[in-house]
Design a protein that fits this description.
Helix 11 packs antiparallel against helix 12 and helix 13 runs antiparallel to helix 14. 39% of the residues lie in helices and 20% in strands. The protein is globular and about 75 Å long. It has 4 domains: 105 residues, Reverse transcriptase/Diguanylate cyclase domain (Alpha-Beta Plaits), CATH 3.30.70; 65 residues, MutS, DNA mismatch repair protein, domain I (3-Layer(aba) Sandwich), CATH 3.40.1170; 45 residues, no CATH class; 121 residues, DNA polymerase, Y-family, little finger domain (Dna Ligase, domain 1). Strand 5 and strand 6 form a beta hairpin. It is of the alpha+beta class and 389 residues long.
């Protein structure tokens, strides 16, 4: 369950100190989740990426939640993980190019919700969605979090956990409270109650050494013990500069402006779908039926971000061999022509089907790249056709 309470509706325009809604999105056991998605026979079984079962050499890069029930954790030696869970399935060499592709697709979904987006790592990101929450959801962020989770799962079959708070620190702590596949919303009024029972090391930036020092020198193990000191003055008097940091966290103050690492955002825009086994009107769904929607979604995102593309790529994965195949076509000049995108994508599909006749496709993805940012004063090509009709 989410940790939240109802509060009065917020008007974004009433004050410059408006309550902020910072989302932290964390993809659940990401590498393992992608491997299980690609090989459904692994579902429900303990799985780890990294390390070899036979030699017991290597390190656990990540593991799913079934493995974590046995005490297996990221960074653990393969030998120790196998001793804790002898039946664990090891994937010694992860498909990192696939992980990156899936991550790029999900990050593009997140980036489409706001320009205040920052990718923190391959499997987590921060978003300031204050404007969307206030204008569309009347100050209540849970439905928006549900919408984001639903879109990510529908597009990539990957679950995520979302933490929501007044700043990045609280949002990140909140994410870990309800994993996997959960939503935790900490309101400003509930911050102290939420933080009180947590260990001090739950605060981002407080490592094992600092936590151990606080325990030995001050007998402090929980955030609640820090809260009990009361004022910022008392915290500074006891912990020095660290006390000021604690007070800011406990008071819900901190970073709310989320700046992207790149001023032009993504290097590519893509949409993909694994559809094998799905039915449409009682018949198996085909790649030809799936592609039109993907093409439209890629086009709409490209135009929304005011990009033009020079390269179109079609990626497919076959059902029998799980082989990945890509075909691309590049143009001399960047454009935003929908018909060119549609026609080229189906041309690329025809090329693949000719070269791999008889192979059944389980997944398809459309990607545009070599992006160029449009002149803000220049209208997309689509607008000229709209105005002319």
């Amino acid at each position: 369950m989410a940790f939240y309470q109802h509060e009065p509706k917020t008007n974004l325009m009433t004050t410059t100190t408006t309550k902020q809604f910072i989302f932290h999105v964390d993809l659940d056991a990401f590498f393992a989740a992608v491997e299980i998605r690609e090989n459904p026979s692994l579902k429900g079984k303990p799985v780890m990426v990294g390390g070899e079962k036979e030699t017991k050499r290597g390190v656990v890069t990540t593991c799913n939640y079934e493995a974590r029930k046995y005490g297996v954790r990221s960074g653990m030696s393969a030998k120790e993980a196998i001793e804790l869970c002898p039946e664990i399935i090891c994937i010694p060499r992860g498909n990192y190019s696939l992980y990156r592709q899936v991550s790029d697709n999900i990050m593009d979904i997140l980036n489409s919700y706001t320009e205040q987006f920052r990718r923190a790592s391959i499997d987590e990101a921060y978003l300031n969605l204050t404007e969307a929450v206030v204008k569309k959801w009347h100050g209540y962020p849970i439905p928006l979090a549900q919408e984001i989770k639903k879109e990510i799962y529908e597009e990539e079959r990957i679950t995520c956990s979302i933490g929501i708070g007044p700043n990045t620190t609280i949002a990140k702590i909140a994410t870990s409270r309800n994993k996997p596949d959960g939503i935790t919303y900490v309101t400003p009024k509930a911050i102290r109650k939420f933080l009180a029972p947590l260990p001090v090391k739950a605060i981002s930036g407080i490592g094992p050494k600092t936590a151990e020092r606080l325990k030995k020198k001050h007998q402090i193990t929980t955030i609640g013990q820090i809260i009990a000191l009361g004022t910022e003055f008392e915290m500074i008097r006891k912990f020095g500069r660290l006390g000021s940091f604690f007070y800011r966290v406990i008071s819900g103050k901190g970073r709310t402006i989320i700046e992207p690492k790149s001023s032009y955002g993504a290097k590519s825009i893509s949409k993909g779908r694994t559809f094998y086994g799905e039915l449409f009107d009682g018949e198996p769904l085909t790649v030809e039926q799936v592609l039109p929607k993907l093409i439209t979604q890629v086009y709409e995102r490209t135009v929304k971000k005011r990009f033009r593309y020079k390269t179109i790529t079609l990626d497919v994965r076959f059902q029998r061999t799980f082989q990945n195949v890509s075909r691309s076509k590049s143009f001399l000049t960047a454009n935003d022509d929908f018909e060119r995108l549609r026609e080229t994508t189906f041309e690329l599909l025809n090329d693949i089907q000719k070269d791999f006749e008889g192979e059944v496709i389980r997944k398809v993805a459309v990607r545009v790249s070599n992006l160029q940012h449009e002149d803000p004063l220049q209208k997309p090509l689509s607008e000229f056709f709209t105005n002319a009709s």
